């Protein structure tokens, strides 16, 4: 009986296993490197700055109705300062260095979860890392566009309108809304259960954990509102009802006691920004 095919298949599998082992070993060396931890910490600090600015804009929006309380609005605020281009470059570089961190985690990370024999949980964590890498990449690209004066406002409406024109477009928009709501709910759960501490190494103060709880819960609520707007747009077949973080926060402001509620949300977003500095100091790489 000819076993040549089986032998080739085994050789290919062994080569693939060797390559994967070599890649994981290299990734472990990189993760233990001091320069790598410094870069990750700098990036998380940049991410924290963005959220602190969003919180400040949300607070202004609560009481004056002025400002765009979103990532784009935060970057536009930086661009309007005297040192705008320099600050944007620093933030853009900081966010950009987070991309390979989370991309590496998505490809090879969360090995401890695998050791615990929970492949489903590891897959979810790797998907989460992949989505984080995408968010960091988009924010970094936006920061660099603002440096060149090419930054633009929110484009959620136009994107939703284009989706609506596709076959099954309303279903796609509804799926986006459900996905964003699911992420928001997961953030609320992560904050309430304090499971974000799994992303940290070393000891964390009670204050650090407290701002993490408040930050994750608030950000989760905000994301759930964004997802709800997309879902409402799908139900009403009106892309103008969709929107991003700014539209979601404006919706809160227009409710009874809206300014007070939005002030609370602004405080929570500020907590997330502060937690990013705690995360930067204790990031598990």
Automatic annotation (TrEMBL):
Residues 42-108, 129-192, 214-280 form the DUF1206 domain. The chain crosses the membrane at residues 38-63, 83-108, 129-148, 168-189, 210-237, 257-280. The keyword Transmembrane applies. Pfam families: DUF1206. It comes from the Bacteria. Keywords: Membrane, Transmembrane, Transmembrane helix. The keyword Transmembrane helix applies. InterPro entries: DUF1206 (IPR009597). This is DUF1206 domain-containing protein. The lineage of its organism: Bacteria, Bacillati, Actinomycetota, Actinomycetes, Propionibacteriales.
